[in-house]
TrEMBL record:
Organism: Roseateles asaccharophilus
Entry superkingdom: Bacteria
Coiled-coil zones: none
Name of the protein: DNA-binding transcriptional LysR family regulator
Domain HTH lysR-type: 11-68
Pfam families per record: HTH_1 (PF00126), LysR_substrate (PF03466)
Keyword Protein transport in annotation: no
Family (UniProt): Belongs to the LysR transcriptional regulatory family.
C-alpha cells in the first residue's frame, strides 16, 4: 500500500490535468495528441498514478477511456482542485496589481442591456499601467427581484445593479440608481383593451396576468402585481413576458422604456389602472469588506455614480431585440 506522502506526490497538477484531458477527449490516443505526448507515455503515467493511489482509474475491458467510479471521483475532485489552484494564483495576482481576477455583476432583468454593454465596452477599452486592457474577467448574471439581492448577499456577485429596494444590512453598501416607471399594457385584441379607464382591480383580476418568476432560491421570493384569485402565467424573463403580452396571452406591467415603441406602433395598448402611476426605486449595491475595493469594482462604482449612467441603465431599452 502506498504511503500518504507517495499519494500526495502523485496528485500533481500535471497528473490531474492529464486525467481531465483523457476524460474530455475520450481516448488515450486523442489525449496524447493534444498533450504532445506518445500514447505509451500517457499510459505509463496513468499506471504510475494508479499504483500510487492503489486504485484502478480506467476500465481496461473497454476500448475507450472509460473511467471507473474511483476515476470519476478523482476527475471531479481534480477539476475542483485545479480551479482552486487557479483561484489562489489569481488572488496573488490581485494583491500584486490591485485588479481582481474576476468581477461578477448581478443585474436585475429590468436593467437596459444596451447601456450595460456600453459600460462593458468602456471597461475593456481602458488601458492599465503597463499597457493592455484590465486583466479582470467580467461575469454577468441576470436575476429577477430578490434573486439580485441573493446573488450579492451569498457571495455570487460583487456588485448588484437594479435591486428593487434598499436592504438594511451591515455588510452591504447601497446607493439609489433612480426611479423606474412601469406601464400596464395589453394587446389590442385583449378584452381589457376596450374597457374605459382607469381599470379597476376587479376588472383586472378577471384576466390572466403574466408574471416573471423571482430567481431567488434561498431568500423569500417577491410577488408583484398579482391579485387574489387571479390566473397567472409565470415566465422566466421580462423579454418572455413581453412576447406573451404581445400575443394577448395575458395582461401585466413592464418598464415603460421597454414597451414604449410597442405602444407607439400599436402592438400594445397602455391602460391606466386603479393604482395610478406606478414606479419603483432601483438601487445598486456592493459588499462592504472593510477594505478598499479592487480596481475593477472601483471602476464600476465610479461609473455608477454618474447620473447619466444610472439613467441609461434604466431607460435605454430601445433598439434591442427583447
Amino acid at each position: 500500500m502506498s504511503a500518504p506522502q507517495d499519494k500526495r506526490r502523485a496528485l500533481t497538477p500535471e497528473a490531474l490535468s492529464m486525467m481531465d484531458t483523457i476524460a474530455r477527449t475520450g481516448s488515450f490516443a486523442a489525449a496524447a495528441r493534444e498533450m504532445g505526448r506518445v500514447p505509451s507515455a500517457l499510459t505509463y503515467s496513468v499506471r504510475q498514478l494508479e499504483d500510487a493511489l492503489d486504485v484502478l482509474l480506467f476500465d481496461r475491458s473497454s476500448r475507450q477511456a472509460v473511467l471507473t467510479a474511483a476515476g470519476q471521483e478523482l476527475l471531479m475532485e481534480g477539476r475542483r482542485l485545479l480551479q482552486e489552484l487557479d483561484a489562489v494564483a489569481n488572488r496573488v495576482r490581485r494583491i500584486a496589481t490591485g485588479w481582481e481576477s474576476e468581477l461578477t455583476l448581478a443585474v436585475d432583468d429590468a436593467v437596459a442591456r444596451r447601456a450595460l454593454f456600453d459600460l462593458m465596452d468602456a471597461f475593456y477599452a481602458e488601458t492599465i499601467e503597463g499597457g493592455g486592457p484590465p486583466p479582470t474577467r467580467l461575469k454577468l448574471r441576470v436575476e429577477v427581484l430578490a434573486g439580485t439581492w441573493e446573488a450579492l448577499l451569498h457571495g455570487q456577485a460583487d456588485v448588484a445593479i437594479g435591486v428593487p429596494a434598499q436592504l438594511q444590512t451591515s455588510n452591504v453598501l447601497c446607493e439609489s440608481a433612480g426611479e423606474l416607471e412601469f406601464a400596464f399594457c395589453v394587446a389590442p385584441h385583449h378584452p381589457l383593451a376596450s374597457l374605459p379607464e382607469p381599470l379597476s382591480a376587479s376588472q383586472i383580476a378577471e384576466h390572466r396576468i403574466i408574471a416573471v418568476a423571482d430567481s431567488a432560491r434561498l431568500m423569500a421570493p417577491l410577488t408583484v402585481g398579482l391579485l387574489p384569485g387571479q390566473d397567472v402565467l409565470t415566465v422566466p424573463s421580462l423579454a418572455t413576458k413581453l412576447e406573451a403580452m404581445l400575443r394577448g396571452l395575458g395582461c401585466g406591467s413592464l418598464p415603460t422604456p421597454m414597451v414604449r415603441r410597442h405602444v407607439e406602433a400599436g402592438r400594445l395598448v397602455r391602460k391606466a389602472t386603479y393604482e395610478g402611476r406606478r414606479t419603483g426605486l432601483m438601487h445598486y449595491a456592493w459588499r462592504d469588506t472593510g477594505h478598499a475595493p479592487g480596481k475593477a469594482l472601483a471602476w464600476w462604482l465610479d461609473k455608477l455614480r454618474s447620473e447619466a449612467t444610472r439613467k441609461a441603465l434604466l431607460e435605454q431599452h430601445e433598439g434591442l431585440l427583447l
